[in-house]
Automatic annotation (TrEMBL):
GO terms for cellular component: cytoplasm; nuclear envelope. The keyword Cytoplasm applies. Importin, which transports target proteins into the nucleus. Specifically mediates the nuclear import of splicing factor serine/arginine (SR) proteins, such as RBM4, SFRS1 and SFRS2, by recognizing phosphorylated SR domains. Also mediates the nuclear import of serine/arginine (SR) protein CPSF6, independently of CPSF6 phosphorylation. The nuclear import process is regulated by the small GTPase Ran that partitions between cytoplasm and nucleus in the predominantly GDP- and GTP-bound form, respectively. It comes from Pogonophryne albipinna. It is found in: Cytoplasm; Nucleus envelope. This is Transportin-3. SUPFAM superfamilies: ARM repeat (SSF48371). Keywords: Acetylation, Cytoplasm, Nucleus, Phosphoprotein, Protein transport, Transport. InterPro entries: ARM-like (IPR011989), ARM-type_fold (IPR016024), Exportin-1/Importin-b-like (IPR013598), Importin-beta_N (IPR001494), Importin_beta-like_NTR (IPR051345), TPR_TNPO3_IPO13_2nd (IPR057941), TPR_TNPO3_IPO13_3rd (IPR057942), TPR_TNPO3_IPO13_4th (IPR058537). GO terms for biological process: protein import into nucleus. Interacts with (GTP-bound) Ran. Interacts with (phosphorylated) SFRS1 and SFRS2; leading to their nuclear import. Interacts with NUP62. Interacts with RBM4. Interacts with CPSF6, promoting its nuclear import. GO terms for molecular function: small GTPase binding. Residues 3-54 form the Importin N-terminal domain.
Length: 883
């Protein structure tokens, strides 16, 4: 509370820039987050005081002016009694030239703050403000025009004016007919055409034009302004060439932004009437001119437009349109292939983590998205012929192979001689070519695994080629990834090579592989293993796991002798990937071939878990490994159930790692339907719940442990799905529901989703009559639970939607409300009415948040809904009143 007064005093003292900046920023934050602390009768005094401060401090520092301008804007938006604030500010300062800079600053930030996340002014107040700003917008533009006339070529003022104009364009409140004939537009384009314009002014003018183009997204309703902007931008081509000649990259990037925004705005028009009026294809020519610039950062600006154009044409699917746009895409692909070339003096393999590596990945994605316009096969053949017929340098070859790798999967592999020829030629590349060419060719082979699957005769030469790569340090990880791809696609053909894969897996650490590549190789091996005859699987799986198990045993024995703790996660992750992907087809009645192996490995995993029980990261990896082991053999892991649950529960009492709850949910999923296991699983749940509730009941417990909330409700949901009556008849259910109600306001994507899914599935068990004999009992038990917690749940859900939860969680909340309504509509109507009565009706600034009619309309929309998505739409609209 004291911050208001102290900040005000510091601003009056005007000691130095630092103290004033601190005070101005504090004032802004207080207005944004704690405005409710001030009684309404103090609002006018605060406004007058802020205006005095900005006037007195205007020459101290521009950053202080900006903070105070934000404070004034945020106050104006929340203070309902300050009517027509734009008008009063202009009236007050219009004639004083020295006040102009801060007046324009306030007018710049005001429209920007209307949609600020930190101000929850609500949809009603926001609508009122936007109408008010639209009403005064022409006054603002007139003020800006007179500023430009007075300023002449004074750069600082022009920058301020352009920023302010852009801000009003962004809010979408300027009258487009009024703007079409306004001289500010002329000034903007003059500044952009002039060669001597400075970098800062150029950027401000460019931003403003981009905002204007964005504001007329709906071209048909803004024809006059659209035409002015369209013609204005087309005049900038000469200026672009001038900037290129002067090697002024900042300006080049600005022009490219403007050209891209032009194309984005007129995209629909261009596709609807290509070459006519504002569908003029010169707009695409401008982008292709930019694509020809030697710096790749320039073409990258336009990627989103090309992606949208491709998406648009794909949806319309009109051959005649494809013919019109095909040449443009062909030229674009040509430019992209050139931009992907590495420097001729580049040494080593292509980097994929630096800026250029990321650019190439984005090129690869874009090419995949637009290739249908050119035809994958046609493009692939053309690229290949440039390699076959010419004698290109290594960097050209590498770039062509890179683009070929991007489109290889979209080429139809059925009896396709070109693909077969490419594969044949690539595996014959000599080891003397540049290592980057070999690297990319290895990636290409991995992308062509479908071709190998259709032409098994290539399998041996391809594997030999990849094995060579695997033995060389820079190529090893890429080769491993390609072998993994081939294992995934050619599982049946690879069975004959299983021994070779096993040899690689045994010697995994003799290759220079990244962790990810090593795990990928094991995944490929496991996928092939699952296709072997059942009688062979157990022995081979045992061999495959032996290396990792021996390593874990070695770590455990070293630990017991010298007390040093070594990290077992590498081996745990490798075992996990083997269990996860060894999924043979087992007929009913057959013993699962992996059961024996997992039984043998359990003691080592159990010891590892015990040794590292305090380390969350290692325990998490142990649980992950056990999760896949249990999933691998399903009911075949029954012998593990007792010792595993005992160990989980005992460690969890001391170290409540949330992954034990997750592992518990897997056990419930696998065994919850087994009559003989239900009581044991319920005992496990109760034993795990006690330390969990203690953890979550601490101060900020829910907020500090979202993973625990997520995993607890996954576990509870599995119980509801597998054995609802067991859970509903237990004493623990009351505590779990209370915890769910408390956690409903938690703003965490996964945790919130789990809580809502639990509530939805719980209530649904009393709604869905699946003709099971326990339906009536379930219905009765849910009725009791709702009788106890229903009103509290609905009130908490409504409050959370309005004040705590982001919009993406609302569909999940809607599903819970929908199930409660299906269960008992009359009672739900009453609960919802009480919940709505409890919501605040106006803001601390005196604005109406929600009218009586809006409340009754919402109640009616929800209670008369015939499907869940109607409830969701109603909540979406209603909660906007509080955002």
């Amino acid at each position: 509370m004291y911050a208001w007064e102290i900040a005000d005093q510091l601003l009056q003292l005007k000691q130095d820039v630092e103290s004033c900046y601190f005070a101005a920023q504090t004032m802004k934050m207080k207005i944004q987050t704690s405005f409710y602390e001030l009684p309404p009768e103090t609002h006018n005094a605060l406004r007058d005081s802020l205006l005095t401060h900005i006037q007195n401090l205007k020459d101290l520092s521009p950053i202080i002016v900006t903070q105070l301008a934000l404070a004034i804007a945020d106050l104006a938006l929340q203070m309902a009694s300050w009517k027509g604030c734009v008008h009063t500010l202009i009236e007050k300062y219009n004639n004083d030239i020295s006040s102009m800079p801060f007046l324009i600053e306030i007018l710049t930030v005001l429209p920007e703050e209307v949609h600020s996340r930190s101000l929850r002014i609500g949809a009603n107040r926001r609508t009122e403000i936007i109408e008010d700003l639209a009403y005064y917008s022409s006054t603002v533009v007139t003020l800006l025009t007179s500023c430009v006339e007075k300023a002449g070529t004074e750069e600082k003022m022009l920058i301020k004016v352009f920023r302010c104009l852009g801000s009003w364009f962004n809010l979408g409140v300027l009258d487009s007919n009024f703007m079409a004939g306004n001289q500010l537009l002329m000034v903007l384009f003059q500044v952009l055409q002039r060669d001597e314009t400075s970098t800062n002014l150029h950027e401000a003018a460019s931003d403003c034009v981009c905002s204007a183009l964005y504001a007329i997204e709906n071209v048909d309703t803004n024809m006059g302004l659209a035409l002015q902007l369209f013609q204005g931008v087309l005049t900038l081509e000469t200026a672009y060439h001038m900037a290129v000649a002067r090697e002024d990259l900042d300006k080049v990037l600005n022009y490219c932004r403007i050209f891209t925004e032009l194309c984005e705005t007129f995209l629909e028009t261009t596709v609807r009437s290509p070459g006519q009026g504002m569908g003029d294809l010169r707009t695409l020519e401008l982008l292709l001119i930019c694509a020809g610039h030697p710096q790749y950062e320039v073409v990258e600006i336009s990627f989103n437009f090309w992606y949208r154009l491709g998406e648009h044409l794909y949806k319309i699917n009109d051959a005649a349109l494809h013919t019109i746009f095909r040449p443009y895409i062909q030229r674009l692909l040509h430019c992209l292939a050139r931009h992907c070339q590495l420097d001729p003096d580049h040494e080593g393999i292509p980097e994929d983590t630096d800026d250029f590596g990321e650019f190439r990945m984005r090129v690869s994605d874009l090419v995949k998205d637009v290739i249908f316009l050119v035809g994958s096969m046609e493009c692939f053949s053309q690229l290949y012929s440039t390699l076959k017929e010419g004698n290109p340098s290594w960097e050209v070859t590498e770039a062509v192979l890179f683009i070929m790798a991007a489109i290889a999967k979209s080429v139809d592999p059925e009896n396709n001689p070109t693909l077969a020829e490419v594969l044949q030629q690539v595996v014959l590349l000599p080891e003397t070519v540049h290592i980057a060419v070999r690297f990319t060719s290895i990636e290409l082979v991995g992308e062509m695994s479908e071709v190998v699957d259709r032409n098994p005769r290539f399998l041996d030469p391809v594997l030999n080629y990849l094995m060579k790569g695997l033995r060389e340090q820079p190529l090893a990880s890429a080769a491993a990834k390609s072998i993994h791809n081939i294992c995934s696609v050619c599982r049946d053909h690879m069975a004959q090579h299983f021994q070779g894969l096993l040899d690689i897996a045994r010697a995994l650490d003799t290759f220079a592989l990244s962790t990810e590549a090593a795990v990928g190789l094991l995944k490929g091996t496991a996928l092939v293993l699952a296709r072997l005859p059942l009688e062979k699987i157990a022995e081979c799986l045992s061999d495959l796991c032996a290396v990792q198990v021996l390593a874990l045993k070695k770590l455990l024995s070293e630990e017991s002798t010298n007390g040093k703790s070594a990290d077992p996660t590498v081996w745990l992750d490798r075992l996990a990937v083997i269990f996860r992907h060894t999924n043979p087809i087992v007929e009913n009645g057959q013993t699962h071939p992996c059961q024996k192996v997992i039984q043998e490995i359990w003691p080592v995993l159990s010891d590892t878990l015990n040794t590292h029980q305090a380390d969350n990261r290692i325990v998490e990896r142990c649980c992950r490994c056990l999760r896949f082991a249990v999933r691998c053999v399903g009911k075949g892991s029954a012998n593990l159930l007792q010792p595993l649950v005992t160990q989980m529960v005992s460690v969890y009492q001391v170290y409540p790692h949330s992954c034990f709850l997750y592992l518990g949910s897997i056990l419930v999923d696998e065994y919850g339907m087994e009559e003989g296991c239900r009581q044991g699983l319920l005992d496990m749940l109760q034993a795990l719940c006690m330390p969990t509730f203690q953890l979550l009941e601490m101060q900020n417990g829910l907020r500090n442990h979202p993973d625990t909330v997520d995993d607890l409700f996954r576990l509870a949901t599995r119980f509801v799905q597998r054995s609802p009556v067991t859970l509903l008849s237990s004493s623990i259910i009351v505590h779990i529901i209370q915890c769910a109600v408390a956690a409903a306001s938690l703003d965490h994507r996964d945790a919130n989703c789990s809580v809502m899914k639990f509530m939805r599935d719980l209530i649904h068990t009393g709604v869905s009559n699946d003709h099971e004999e326990d339906f009536e009992l379930r219905k009765q038990l849910i009725g009791q639970a709702m009788g106890q917690h229903g009103q509290q749940l609905i009130t908490q859900l409504m409050t959370s939607c309005c004040f705590c939860l982001p919009p993406y969680t609302l569909p999940d909340v809607a599903e819970v409300l929908w199930e409660v309504m299906l269960f008992d509509r009359p009672t739900f109507c009453r609960w919802l009415e009480n919940a709505l009565k409890a919501l605040p009706k106006e803001t601390s600034g005196g604005a109406v948040t929600v009218t009586h009619k809006q409340l009754t309309d919402f109640h009616k929309q929800v209670t008369s809904a015939e499907e869940c998505k109607q409830v969701c739409w109603a909540i979406r609209e209603f909660t906007r009143l509080y955002r």
